[in-house]
Amino acid sequence: MTDWLSPEEWQAVALSLRVSAVATAASLPLGILVALALARGRFPGRQVLNGIVHLPLILPPVVTGYLLLLTFGRKGLVGQVLDQWFGVVLAFRWTGAALAAAIMAFPLMVRAIRLAIEAVDPKLEQAAATLGASRPWIFATVTLPMILPGIVAGAILAFAKAMGEFGATITFVSNIPGQTQTLPSAIYSFLQVPGGDAQAARLVMVAVVIAMAALLLSEWVGRAVARRIGGA
Amino acid sequence: MTLSVSLNHRLPGFTLDLSFEAPPGLTALFGRSGAGKTTVVNAVAGLVTPERGRIVADDGVLLDTAAGVNLPPHRRRVGYVFQDARLFPHLTVRQNLLYGRFFAPKGAGADLARIVDLLGIAALLGRRPGALSGGERQRVAIGRAILSNPRMLLLDEPLAALDEARKAEILPYLERLRDELGLPMLYVSHAMSEVARLATTVVLMEAGRVTAAGPTAAILSDPAAATGLGLREAGAVLDARVAAQEADGLTRLETGAGPLWLPQIDARDGALLRLRILAQDVMLATQRPQGVSALNILPATVRDIRIGDGPGALVRLTAGEETILARITRRSVDALGLEAGRPVYAVLKAVSVARENVGQTGQIAR
C-alpha cells in the first residue's frame, strides 16, 4: 500500500482515518446523552436542542466552518479561553479538523441512537425495576445492551460521514498538507493542478473502499446482534 | 405475611377507592376488565403512585402518602409476573432467571435448581426468550420473579395471553408454587376457573371498589356475590380427597357433602383436590330420584334462595359440611315449593365437572 500511494497521498489517508476515529470516539458519549435526552427527556427547550443538533445537516458546510472559526478560532469566544487557559488551539490543526468532522457527523449519530432508544420497550425497564434494579443499573443492564446495535450503527455512520467531510473542514482548518489535508481536501487539491487526475483517482478508490468497508461492517454487526437477540 | 392495601386514585372514567387485606396464601383480585385490578397491582409494585394510599406489608411500609413514604419499585422487593412475560431478549433464560438475584439481599431466597425443577424449565436454560413458546416464557417469567427473593409475588393475569392448552400446562405449576413456597401471592384475574382453582382468598372488584372479600369457598358460594361473578360462572368450591380409582374409568371422591363419582382424575389415592361445581350443572329434587342416569345424588338442605331479576334463581344448599349452589328457574322454585330449611336432593352428572375445574391442592379451601 505504501508504494502504491505516494507519501503525500498516504499522509492524507492516515490523517483522515485519525481525524474520523477521534471525532467519532470523542463525540460518542455526548451523542448517547443527547439521544437519551431527546428520546426520553421531558424538559423545556427539547425542540431547541433538537434543532441545534440538526443544524449542521441543513446549513451549508461552509457556514458551519465559518461559525466554527468565529467560535473556536484563536480570537473566537471559546477559542480564546481554550488558548489562554489550556494552551489548546484548534484552528488550522488536525484537532480542529476532528472537531469540524464531529459536529458535521453528530446529527447522523444522534439520529441512529435516538431511534434505537425509542424502540426499547419501557415495559422491560419496568420489569427490571421490579426485580430490584435501580435506574443506573437498568440503563447498564437492559437499555444499553438493547440499543447497542443503534450505537454501533450511529458510530459507523458518523465515521463514514467524518471521512467525507470537506466544506466545514477546509473553511475551519484550511488544507495544509501533512497537517490538515484530509482525504477529500487532497482529492480537491490534486484536481486543481494539471496532471493530478491519476493521484485523485487513486484516492477516490481508497475513499470508495473505506466507505464500502464501513457499510458492510455496520450490516454485519446489525445482523450479528439481531441473531443474538432473536435466536436460540 | 399479610399485605394491607388502601388506595384512592382517580382514573379516566372512575375512581379507585378501596381497601383490602391479603392474608398468607394466594389472594385473587377478581373482576371484569377495566375494574382497576391492574392499577391496584401496579400501585403495590410502585409502578403507579396513587393520589392517596397506604400499602403495608408485615415487614415494612411500601407506601404511605400521608406520611410521605413512597419506596421506589426497585426497593419494594415484590416479584411481578406481567401478562406479557417481559423477559429480557438479549439474555439467555438462565441469565433472565438470575437477573434479580444480583440485586437481592445475599443469602436467603429460593435456589435456582429447585425453582427450575418446580417449573420444569431445565431444558430451556441455554435458550433465548425469542425461541420460547408463550407458555414457556410465562414459566420463565414466574421463575425470574421468584428468584429475585421477593417478599411477595404479584401476578397480573399471567395466563390471559395463552390458549387453553397452555393455561392447562401452567396451572399445576402455580398450584405447586402456592403450596410449596409459602410466598404470599396477589393474583389478578377475570377468569373464574383460575380463581376457583388457585385462590385462598378472593377480593371481588367492580368499577374501582371492593364488593366482597373473604375465603374462596365462602365468597364463591355466596349468591349475593354471584351477580358480580357472572351468573354463568357461579358455583361452589368443594374440597375432596381421592378415595379410589374404579374399574369402569370413574374416580370416587370423598367430600364433606358425601361421595362423588367423576370421570377419571389423574391423582394418587388420598390426594387432596379442589372441585368447582357450577351452579347451572346442579339439579334439585324433593325426593330421591329413581331411574335417573346422574350418578351423584347428595342429600341437602335449602339454606337460602335468591330470586334474580330474570327467570332464574340461585339456591344455596347445605350438604353435610359443604355448601353447594344450584341455579334453577323461578318456576321450579314455586313448583317444588322450595324454601329455607326444606330438605332436597342435589343431582349432578358425573361428566359435568370439567377438567379445568379440578385442581390439585396441598391446602384446604375452607
List its traits:
heterodimer, A: mainly alpha, MetI-like fold, 10 helices, 80% helix, B: alpha+beta, Rossmann fold, OB fold (Dihydrolipoamide Acetyltransferase, E2P), 2 domains, six-stranded mixed β-sheet, 21 strands
What does it look like?
The complex is a heterodimer of chains A (232) and B (366). Chain A has 232 residues and is mostly helical. Chain A contains 10 helices and no strands. Chain A has one domain (7-230): Orthogonal Bundle (MetI-like fold), CATH 1.10.3720.10. The longest helix of chain A is centred in the N-terminal third of the chain and has 34 residues, at 7-40. Chain A is globular. The model of chain A has no long low-confidence stretch (mean pLDDT 90). In chain B, strands 7-8-9-3-10-11 form a 6-stranded mixed β-sheet, with helices on both faces. The radius of gyration of chain B is 22 Å and the shape is globular. Chain B has helices spanning 37-45, 93-98, 112-119, 134-147, 164-181, 192-198, 216-220, 223-229, 330-336; strands spanning 3-11, 14-22, 26-30, 52-57, 60-64, 69-70, 78-81, 152-156, 185-189, 201-206, 209-215, 235-245, 250-255, 258-263, 272-278, 282-285, 296-307, 312-319, 322-329, 343-348, 358-360. Chain B is 22% helix and 37% strand. Chain B contains 9 helices and 21 strands. In chain B, a hairpin with a 2-residue loop joins strand 4 (52-57) and strand 5. Chain A binds chain B through residues 121, 123-124, 126-134, 137, 141-142, 145-146, 228-232, and chain B through 45-47, 72-80, 82, 84, 86, 88-90, 99-100, 102-104, 127-128, 130-131, 144-145, 148.
